[in-house]
Design goal:
binds the ligand Nc1nc2c(c(=O)[nH]1)N[C@H]1C(S)=C(S)[C@@H](COP(=O)(O)O)O[C@H]1N2; Sulfite Oxidase, Chain A, domain 2; about 35% strand; 4 helices; binds molybdenum atom; elongated; alpha+beta
Length: about 170
């Protein structure tokens, strides 16, 4: 009887240990996925660069506010973290002369064209990766990232782009 109880305790303790280990691994994998998330910059369809989260954050992280408006609901003011989208073009010295728009595309095939004048405005078009200090998550886990193109001065959010993977300047 006593041996049975000890055996049960050992089994339960192992289950708890293995589960804890698996959860920790899952969190690590998620973190890696977030950090390795890449974003592609194109000039007229030609790939110029591919950046990961660290490189993007290195361009100058900014906190900004924007109103998320989900269909059928009232807009919610959130605090986001990201870099101005134009910083990515500046970094690679892409010539903006004669260009008219930036086409942002997402993993779900969604694309948004943002007027170049709008992209060049101060404090408006961002490539965000955090909301209220938390990573944006991804399409699989019900999030909106890892990257989301946000037009902070828009009243509504229908021209934003969730799960953004590239920006092509045309
Ligand atoms: N990648 C992607 N971005 C998208 C969409 C989409 O379907 N896919 N929908 C747009 C629309 S219609 C709205 S209203 C906003 C807000 O979507 P959300 O409420 O899921 O955040 O995202 C915009 N960006
Ligand atoms: Mo929408």
């Amino acid at each position: 009887m006593k041996r049975k109880i000890i055996l049960m305790i050992v089994i339960l303790a192992s289950i708890v240990g293995v589960t804890a280990y698996m959860n920790r691994r899952a969190v690590e994998v998620k973190k890696e996925l977030q950090e390795n998330a890449e974003f592609v910059i194109k000039d007229n369809g030609r790939e110029i660069a591919k950046l990961n989260m660290k490189e993007i954050r290195g361009l100058g992280e900014i906190e900004f506010g924007a109103n998320l408006k989900t269909s059928g609901k009232e807009p919610i003011a959130y605090k986001y973290t990201g870099v101005p989208l134009k910083k990515l073009f500046e970094k690679f010295e892409i010539d903006l002369k004669g260009k008219s728009a930036v086409i942002v595309s997402a993993v779900d095939g969604y694309t948004v064209a943002v007027d170049i004048d709008k992209v060049l405005e101060e404090d408006n078009v961002y490539l965000a990766y955090m909301r209220e200090g938390e990573p944006l998550g991804n399409r699989e886990d019900g999030g909106k990232g890892p990257y989301q193109m946000i037009i902070s001065k828009d009243k509504f959010s229908q021209y934003w782009c969730k799960f953004a993977i590239e920006a092509d300047i045309k």
